[in-house]
Amino acid sequence: MESEKQSNDEQSIRNETDQRHAEQMQRRKASYDARKAAATREKGLIIVNTGAGKGKTSAALGMVFRALGHGMRVGVVQFTKGAIETGEAAFAGQLEGRVDFYTLGEGYTWETQDRGRDTAVAGAAWARARALIEDPRYQIVVLDELNIVLKYGYLPLDEVLETLRHKREDLHIVITGRNAREELIELADLVTEMKLIKHPYKGGIKAQKGIEY
Questions:
Q1: 147-200 pLDDT per residue, tens
Q2: Of 44, 43, 77, the residue nearest 60 (C-alpha)
Q3: Domains of the chain by residue range
Q4: Whose CA is closest to 155, among 86, 79, 209, 211?
């Protein structure tokens, strides 16, 4: 009898727990449905991925993959990468007509160590970026590591912000890189900061193919 009573008590506790969970989920669903119903405006977003953590470019390329699934056309400009071949650039070469991928940098700024040269390269990359932004064929443009060249002053911030403000209403622009300028964060619709918690470099592990490049 004692074991039967204990079993009944345990079942009662499970039932109460399940009921509380169901009520909590109902409240969450009602809240979500209300927010979803209120969000009726459509617009092209300015999206910024920044922070010290890894994954900023990876997240942007995830959006590229998603957009391709919807039949959208994408343009990508990489502002600082270019010293090594990357998997994303190689794969993009197989998607001609769907992704236009421009790796126009010469490597990280601490490798080049030449401000004049870095400024010239950034200017050429920005000219390509503006051409993509102004081209009505593209639904998404990714400006990879633009934050870096803005941080070091290789491009005039005011000019970049002005271009972003006057982009087509339906165009999405994704910007990556550490140390996003406050003015850009203010302008953006969506900002995500990647936080570094642990990195294999600190354990002496080198960059891995398919993970870092």
A1: 999 999 999 999 999 999 999 999 999 999 999 999 999 999 999 999 999 988
A2: 77
A3: 1-40, 46-203
A4: 79
Instruction: Pull the structure tokens for residue 85.
Output: 């071949």
Q: Which residue has the tokens 């040269």?
A: 117
Strands of the sheet containing 140-144, edge to edge, are 99-103, 74-78, 140-144, 172-176, 46-50, 190-193
Take residue 54 and report the two structure tokens written for it.
């890894």
CB 155 within 8 A of CB 22: no
Q: How far is CA 162 from the centre of its chain?
A: 21
24-58 b/e with 16+ CB inside 10 Å = b?
Answer: eeeeeeeeeeeeeeeeeeeebebbbbbbebbebbe
Q: What is the CATH number of domain 46-203?
A: 3.40.50.300
